[in-house]
């Protein structure tokens, strides 16, 4: 969004400059009153008053400043309410071109007060979609229709989030694709995630403060954002107390992921990422408009408003690269090389310890590009990386086998136990064979089952 007055533009520029310089962003105005969300939630397309505040108001705000707030009722698969406190915030963030944008985040908090500073996990759910009705903020609410409309990942990953809630942690769920649903635009998602955490700190009911330790979690499409957030944090939001990041199924290099999807069952899902990138990068959108053939444009138009389930199911086994006609070949075109470079991880070493895992047999996210990312990190002084390759899983199973150990690793960081210095790479037949896996997995499943019967998750912890 662009500003309409010189004053708003100046304020926006000053806020961006201050953030780029590493200065903590703080709200310039009093927080808005907390409203009650509608009984039947509305997706972004039907709720512009909450999701799209006036451009002047957004531009005049500081990064992370709260613009709207409301209380919601979260629920498993939209049907069974969770017994936790929950709110959503609209706040100001910044896109990769430096423009002020509105963004939304969801806060889930165990009822009651915490013992010591409230611990936080920011969970970047794999939205992998290109429409507002697929966004996390809609998909976690009671009586939402997302599961029927193709958003099956967000409610499934909410089960993992309940494992964090059961530990007494606040869970933050940013709509990291932004107002234009820019799937796979990792640097954008990183800015939104960091500004989301700023907003949560400024929201008193969350009980999150400057002293609260924060962990990051993301798998697959969520790992795109988590990885970029870990890299960007030290320059964009150095004041945040992020103590570790856990990510799995890591799309560190989208060029490799695109090539792996060629003529493959996952080509439809990855073509959705092409749509998302064109929404964030103006130069890439202009290139596609000029170089995609008519059949390709028709396919892109049909896939443009779809959630992840239908993104994946429509048009598998496509020759995605064949839709693009450019001198020297599509993958050598300057705009394509540039978007791959702009979204490739490994440009800087995160200033926090990293827990990373990937299936060695992953059919969507090739393990080799994760190996290279780990190598890039570990050649730099100060790296703290724990990396596991799982040899008895594919892409979806790898989250089930890896998430319980990621929870344990994050718990140690949030409890103040430092990660070991240096790098460690381990090959496992299956991560589920570790002794600590089953107790953690069963405790999470138990929390999910208890939540179905109204148990207050993590209360008083």
UniProtKB/TrEMBL annotation:
Keywords recorded for this protein, A-Z: Signal
Any one Gene Ontology molecular-function term assigned to this protein's record: triacylglycerol lipase activity
GO BP term, example: lipid catabolic process
Record carries keyword Cytoplasm: no
Source organism, top-level taxon: Bacteria
The UniProt record lists the keyword Signal: yes
Pfam family, one: LIP
Signal peptide location: 1-30
Coiled-coil ranges from the UniProt annotation: none
Protein name: Lipase
Source organism of the structure: Gordonia neofelifaecis NRRL B-59395
